[in-house]
Amino acid sequence: MLNIALIAHDRKKDEMVNFVTAYEHVFAGHNLYGTGTTGQRIMDNTKLDVHRFMSGPLGGDQQIGALVAQNEMDLIIFLRDPLMAQPHEPDIIALLRLCDVQGIPCATNIATAEILVKALDRGDFAWRELVHKYKPGLE
């Protein structure tokens, strides 16, 4: 069971809901996390439970980033809107940088998200379970 974060900018929320609905059977076996409205919209349209953090502009990106920094997140799907300026852009960049530092797969568009979810469905993320199994201090 992996920890998966689902984040979408306002103009990408419908796309995220449609995507998660299409792959609900894959996401059902994992722990889901999301920023405020995105998480709520996913729960309203599926049978999935999403642990909701604050809205992105209010710190939700940073809350998810804290889990990434501790290597507690296994996969991020962050549907960004590249055509709209975001007031919390520094938080977004910090989250993406943390994913790079920790080696956490992060999709920022629907095409990459689909590739990652298909890999998840095939079991290609089993290596992440080893990360948790051999985490320092848990032996």
Automatic annotation (TrEMBL):
Task: Give the EC number.
Answer: 4.2.3.3
Entries under Gene3D superfamilies matching the protein: Methylglyoxal synthase-like domain (3.40.50.1380)
Instruction: Extract the SUPFAM superfamilies matched here.
Output: Methylglyoxal synthase-like
Q: Where is the active site?
A: D61 (proton donor/acceptor)
> Which reaction is recorded as catalysed by this protein?
dihydroxyacetone phosphate = methylglyoxal + phosphate
Q: Which residues of this UniProt protein bind substrate?
A: H9, K13, T35, G36, T37, T38, S55, G56, H88
Q: Which SMART domains match?
A: MGS
Signal peptide boundaries: none
Domain (MGS-like): residue spans on this chain: 1-139
Keywords associated with the record: Lyase
A GO molecular-function annotation: methylglyoxal synthase activity
The record, for InterPro entries, names: Methylgl_synth, Methylglyoxal_synth_AS, MGS-like_dom, MGS-like_dom_sf
Say which family it is in.
Answer: Belongs to the methylglyoxal synthase family.
Q: What does this protein do?
A: Catalyzes the formation of methylglyoxal from dihydroxyacetone phosphate.
Q: What is this protein called?
A: Methylglyoxal synthase
**Gene coding for it:** mgsA
